[in-house]
């Protein structure tokens, strides 16, 4: 106790070496139903413990002559004498039959393993009455209890059982065991509380992020709703401003609006046609698709510059183009094998011809080829200077243009 008191270490439990050995045996696979365990302590001291399927039956400490500590042969002779004495005692108690071989497990350290090889010779003619098995930290004992490889002392296995915290305090009063159980429960509750707090913080962060995203979506929806409201008010003003006595003007406006809607861009159908063409060209892969149409603001600017009248003149029989109906589709993609320059050029040219054949009224131009075929270009591809250094330029870029259709009115 002196080292413990000097370091002020609290004592949390008192355990029996024999009972700890029983817990050790329970974790060993295929141990015999009855076994005599001889565990080496200090030089000249052996703990004898006999176990059956009912548990520990007897245990005693055998102390040999201290002068034999430096004489291995004398130590083996003393150990053999103790084994004979233990077997006679067990036979007297009728715990072991006289004609039954008694299994004996010798728990020794690594440096004692070589000396134990002479034990059968020390037993002499009685060696056949024992089934000797050596157990060291480097053997099956270490593998079962996951002891470190460099372990040399078998007592470390018992310490590992204590550190695991799965053994009850064998000599503690009931009040102490209750306090220990409450302490362990409180510690587990504290750990779970920390986990729950972390989970709550994570869920709160996710909820805040989702609320932010929802707020942004609501803001965009509000802007779209206000835009639709302005368009509805503008349409109502124009409708009330139209003269009721001018049915020809209203009929012309209705026809113009129908043609306008029929000529509106249809991105879905166009992209489906592009996808069908790409199915026949497995060597090409699209990275980015940009769809652009001229906004109404462009039409207003063009009208201000005199390019297009602000409102269609109903009396003009000529066709009136609608610039916002003009469409532009930009395809950026990559080729499967950048080293096959001729094959890459053929695939991009085949893509251009197939799109020209399948899409009516489209004007296709290749902005970038997989291989720069200019006279000043080099064979090695040159990376574009982009803001993001991690961005990789596309191998080819195609631009598809649909001019604005001409809408006629009477």
List the helices and strands and how they pair.
Blueprint lengths: L1 H6 L9 H10 L8 E6 L4 E8 L2 E9 L8 H21 L9 E6 L11 H5 L6 E6 L4 H6 L9 H10 L9 H68 L5 H16 L4 H13 L4 E10 L2 H9 L15 E2 L5 E9 L5 H18 L4 E6 L27 E7 L3 E2 L3
Parallel strand pairs: 1-4, 4-5
Antiparallel strand pairs: 1-2, 2-3, 6-8, 7-11, 8-10, 9-10
Helix pairs in contact: 9-11
Task: Describe the protein.
With 410 residues, this protein is an alpha+beta fold. The chain has eleven helices and eleven strands. It has a five-stranded mixed beta sheet with strand order 3-2-1-4-5, sandwiched between helices. Helix 4 (119-123) links the parallel strand 4 (102-107) and strand 5 (130-135). Helix 9 packs across helix 11 (341-358). The protein starts with a helix and ends with a strand.
One letter per element, helices H and strands E, the order comes to: HHEEEHEHEHHHHHEHEEHEEE
Average per-residue pLDDT, rounded, comes to 76
Question: Into how many domains do the coordinates divide?
Answer: 2
Name the shape in a single word: elongated
Separation of the first and last Cα atoms: 114 Å
- Model regions low in confidence, pLDDT < 50 over at least 5 residues: 296-300, 306-320, 379-390
């Amino acid at each position: 106790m002196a080292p413990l008191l000097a370091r002020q270490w609290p004592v949390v439990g008192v355990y029996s070496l024999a009972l700890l050995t029983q817990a050790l045996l329970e974790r060993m696979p295929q141990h015999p139903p009855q076994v005599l365990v001889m565990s080496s302590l200090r030089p000249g001291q052996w703990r004898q413990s006999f176990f059956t399927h009912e548990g520990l039956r007897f245990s005693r400490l055998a102390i040999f002559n201290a002068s034999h500590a430096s004489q291995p042969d004398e130590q083996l002779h003393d150990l053999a004498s103790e084994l004979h004495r233990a077997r006679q005692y067990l036979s007297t108690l009728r715990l072991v039959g006289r004609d039954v071989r008694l299994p004996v497990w010798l728990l020794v350290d690594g440096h004692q393993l070589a000396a134990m090889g002479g034990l059968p010779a020390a037993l002499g003619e009685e060696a056949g009455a024992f089934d000797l098995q050596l157990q060291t930290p480097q053997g099956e004992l270490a593998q079962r209890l996951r002891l470190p490889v460099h372990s040399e002392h078998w007592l470390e296995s018992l310490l590992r059982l204590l550190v695991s915290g799965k053994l009850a305090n064998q000599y503690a009063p009931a009040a102490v065991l209750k306090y220990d159980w409450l302490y362990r429960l409180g510690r587990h509750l504290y750990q779970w509380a920390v986990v729950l707090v972390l989970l709550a913080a994570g869920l709160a962060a996710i909820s805040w992020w989702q609320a932010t995203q929802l707020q942004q979506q609501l803001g965009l929806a509000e802007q779209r709703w206000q835009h639709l409201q302005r368009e509805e008010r503008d349409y109502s003003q124009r409708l009330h401003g139209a003269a009721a006595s001018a049915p020809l003007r209203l009929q012309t406006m209705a026809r113009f609006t129908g043609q306008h809607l029929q000529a509106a861009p249809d991105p879905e159908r166009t992209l489906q046609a592009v996808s069908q063409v790409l199915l026949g060209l497995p060597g090409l892969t699209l990275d980015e698709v940009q769809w652009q149409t001229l906004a109404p603001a462009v039409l207003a600017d063009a009208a201000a510059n005199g390019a297009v009248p602000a409102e269609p003149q109903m009396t003009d029989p000529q066709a009136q183009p609608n610039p916002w109906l003009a469409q532009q589709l930009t395809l950026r993609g990559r080729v499967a094998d950048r080293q096959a320059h001729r094959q890459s050029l053929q695939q991009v040219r085949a893509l251009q011809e197939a799109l020209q054949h399948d899409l009516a009224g489209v004007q296709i131009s290749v902005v970038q080829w997989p291989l720069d075929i200019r006279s000043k270009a080099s064979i090695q591809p040159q990376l574009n200077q982009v803001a993001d250094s991690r961005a990789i330029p596309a191998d080819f870029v195609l631009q598809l243009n649909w001019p604005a259709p001409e809408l006629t009115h009477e």
